[in-house]
Amino acid sequence: MLARLKTLAKLLLLLTLLICVVWFAIFQVNTASLDQKQVNASAAHLQEMGRELGVVPPSPPNLPHGGMLKPVGEVLQQQWAKDLYLFLKTMDSKLITFVSANFEYTRQLLNWLINACVITKMPCRNLLVLAFDQRLHTYLQSKHISSIYINRDAFIMPSVRMHTPNSYIYLIRFAVMRVINFWGFDVLSVDLDAIILKNLSDLFDKYGDEDIVGSVGHYPFDLNKKWGATLCMGAVLIRATPRTDLVWDVSANGTIQDDQMTINYILNDLGVEWHQAKTPNEDYCVQGFAPQGLKVTIFSNSIMCRSCEHTYLRTYYVWHQRASKSFEAKHQQAAKANLWLLDTHWNYTSDSNKSLTGLEWLKSLFQKADNSSVFGLTTIPHN
């Protein structure tokens, strides 16, 4: 009897050890699988994980144009904020670049992406599209182009009437920049008609001490008359520094539905004084200093070109088209500069490259015509 009990005890011990070995093996496989998933996770995967885990991003103390936007706590509870927060966590840089568009501007957006990602080869893994309608967002997601969907109703107070069709974009993108800075990231906002021709990181690295860096503008006209130039929001970098917190604090009282007018009036309120200076390449720029320590640099047209005449495109970092409201006018300007690279036969419903995604898809949209001039020095007419 005692011998049987000893045998049974040995069998139970062996069974227990076997169970432990099997459990440990399963645990190791699952852990390795989880780690691999985490290593290879895309922004879309993390966004989905965030939805399941109920991620709540931290909220800044205020937003620009406080009287026109919903309370910051309500705005940051929306899904766009969670998606943006998780996207930032996937980046390998402290700098995020974003462009804003709705479905109406899909062709212009794709042309911008081809120039930036295919020709200029900027790091588009840190590029995000702010999609202002669900249709564009869904389309970009299907092509593995990073985007977040922003519903204007999630930001704008119902009682606020927009002065122009694009006023809500100016209000929202400025608020998004504020949120990104609060989360500790530098942010570069670029207009769709501001085509990137060189990697801007190379330029910005030379101005690492600046809080705000951007292209030259001419309005608000009263400040242009006072200063001789203004900061253009067509291509502007705002770094996450204690000094830019001053800008965002002042912006909370903004009442103008235009981000370019808003930021220039803020700089004026902060007492920025401007001085002409030379860049490391002997080009001229304008540098501004506020008593609180804020540093701002505005690049001349020789670096970031706006409405330039008879000059070599590839010497610029950014070519910003002349102001125009119609798509056809913008299309013609870019075509004259040999910078319209999207296949002219492309349209949303007949996209034949359904199996291609990401950079390979953008390459496939590059028009079939001879584009050798894109890679050389090209002059553009001015009329």
Overview of the molecule:
- The protein is α/β, with parallel strands linked by helices and 383 residues long.
- 41% of the residues lie in helices and 16% in strands.
- It has 13 helices and 12 strands.
- The chain has a 9-stranded mixed beta sheet with strand order 3-2-1-4-7-6-10-9-8. Strands 5-12-11 form a 3-stranded mixed beta sheet.
- A hairpin with a 5-residue loop joins strand 8 and strand 9.
- Helix 2 (43-53) packs across helix 4 and helix 5 (106-119) crosses helix 13.
- The longest helix is centred in the N-terminal third of the chain and has 39 residues, at 2-40.
- The chain is globular and about 60 Å long.
- Mean pLDDT is 80; it is low at 21-43 and 368-383.
Summed up, what is this model?
With 383 residues, this protein is an alpha/beta fold. It has helices at 2-40, 43-53, 72-76, 79-90, 106-119, 134-142, 167-182, 200-204, 221-227, 242-251, 259-269, 327-336, 358-365; strands spanning 95-101, 127-131, 147-149, 186-190, 194-196, 212-217, 230-238, 273-278, 284-289, 295-299, 304-306, 318-320.
